[in-house]
Amino acid sequence: MKQLLRTNDLTSIAFAQALLQGEGIDCFEIDVNMSSLEGSIGIFPRRLMVADDDLAAARVTLLDNGFDLEA
Description:
The chain is of the alpha+beta class and 71 residues long. 39% of the residues lie in helices and 21% in strands.
């Protein structure tokens, strides 16, 4: 698994997942339960992971839809 996206923006994670699912790319969100440890204030980013073989296609999909993957 490789990290594709890391963000505090929950809407960006949801949009990215929808885009990837639409392309048939499986993804997995990690660090979801950190909010219970931080008090739900959003200081710990969530990460979206994809299989190593899907990384290139997933990057193209998100970049084509306006995501900044360098941040």
